[in-house]
């Protein structure tokens, strides 16, 4: 019995010794599923995730200026590809981990109809979108308004968020009565958590392909490689689907 206990302690110590940290830059829209996945990853592997959340465009600038991130989970596929081309990411480590969905949302019940007709009717003072120069969800929102031929009429009402997270905060706080946010921010288990919403048809904007990539500082790091492998696995995929993303 003593030998078995000693062996178990030795194995646990060995696992702890091999545990490492991985610094991950995560697109703001993916905050909720990332926290869930990170907790499962830590429990299953012993590695610890140090996650930072923000706008993909800002992360790009920080990475180019030497930020210590080892993995990037972007809100688009262009930024990881660009970093790979520029030699700032590990070649062939890039893959699409999720396809995002855009939602027009209001914290007020009944304000947004399920066809998005509120955009044409007007009657609201502000419309929040993420900065399209920094956040792919903001760029998608601009595409939607352009296809609906409403961009010119609504541009003066824009309240720009630095990220999709700040955009959601603007609407949740009432600073803007409605805005374009990520589905994962307002839906859970396929149901709207609060307020009113229109799930924007994918045909109105380019696919929001969200790519992950190992950055140069994560090259050869076991925790970084383990996290990317975990993100491709069934447990992570189940979490991602549960927040309304396609794969």
Please tell me about this protein's structure.
- With 247 residues, the protein is an alpha/beta fold.
- Helix content is 41%, strand content 23%.
- It contains 11 helices and 12 strands.
- The strands form 3 sheets. A 5-stranded mixed sheet has the order 2-1-3-12-4, with helices on both faces. It has a 5-stranded mixed sheet with strand order 7-6-8-5-11. A two-stranded antiparallel sheet has the order 9-10.
- Strand 1 (21-27), helix 2 (31-45) and strand 2 (48-54) form a beta-alpha-beta unit.
- Helix 2 packs antiparallel against helix 11 (234-242).
- 45% of the residues are buried.
Looking at how many chains there are and whether they match, the oligomeric state comes to: single chain
Strand order of the largest sheet: 2-1-3-12-4
Backbone shape: globular
Q: Strand tally, please?
A: 12
**Biggest sheet architecture:** 5 strands, mixed
Rg on CA atoms, Å: 20 Å
Helix content: 40-55%
Q: Ends: how far apart?
A: 48 Å
Strand content range: 15-25%
Low-confidence stretches: 4-17
Tally of helical segments: 11
Question: What is the string of SSEs from the N terminus onward?
Answer: HEHEHEHEEHEHHEHEHEEEEHH
